[in-house]
Amino acid sequence: MSVLRRRAARRARGDAYGDPLDAAQERRVRAVLALGGVPQADLPDGVQQVRLRLLERAAKGQEAPRDVSAWAAVVASNLAMDWHRAKRRQERLGERLASLRPHEHPSGEDTSVLSLAVARGLDELPDAQRQVVVLRFYADLPVRSIAQELGVPEGTVKSRLHTAVRALRAHLHEDEVV
């Protein structure tokens, strides 16, 4: 029996090696990745990484997360942060090698649309702040769930949210979007 047939049979039986994400969870993971700044072309890989991490938990004998949807959103958020870190490393290397790449600043035309301005503002936030903003406002997770999944106190999540929202608001006013 081929590997694909065995996988299909497992999925049909609904055992541990079937698809660990349902359609709604997959859409949420895609949204968190996209809002975290991962390009469209890399979204399928990000979703697969979330699936893989869930399957690895099961393979190691760890019990399933209490709330798979929240867990998957946090993992997706962490993957988006990893993607940004890798992108920054690659950009720094390119700058050192080429020494010709000028630093790009958003122009007034680029920031005239609110969604573009918010996306740019999110890109400028520190990773931890961007993560809680995406999880709270885009993945619609409550502060308590974010704190539990990230392993930090609720006050830390609230503080990061407050600081991030203030920075985004300042960014939007600075660019005269609002």
Report on this model:
- Mean pLDDT is 79; it is low at 1-16.
- 70% of the residues lie in helices and 0% in strands.
- Helix 3 packs across helix 4 (68-98), helix 5 (114-124) packs across helix 8 and helix 7 (143-150) packs across helix 8 (154-174).
- By secondary structure, it is an all-alpha fold.
- The protein is built from eight helices and no strands.
In short:
The chain is mostly helical. It has 8 helices and no strands. α2 (23-35) runs parallel beside α4 (68-98).
Structural class: mainly alpha
Beta-strand content estimate:
under 5%
H/E order of the elements?
HHHHHHHH
The number of E-state strands comes to: 0
Indicate the mean pLDDT.
79
Major sheet characteristics: none
Q: Terminal Cα separation, in Å?
A: 61 Å
Q: Please give the count of helices.
A: 8
| Percentage of residues assigned to helices | 55-70%
Low-confidence stretches: 1-16
Query: What overall form do the CA principal axes indicate?
Result: globular
Q: What is the CA-atom radius of gyration, in angstroms?
A: 19 Å
Q: Which terms summarize this structure?
A:
178 residues, mainly alpha, 70% helix, disordered N terminus
List the helices and strands and how they pair.
Layout lengths: L2 H11 L9 H13 L7 H17 L8 H31 L15 H11 L2 H12 L4 H8 L3 H21 L4
Helix pairs in contact: 2-3, 2-4, 3-4, 4-6, 5-8, 6-8, 7-8
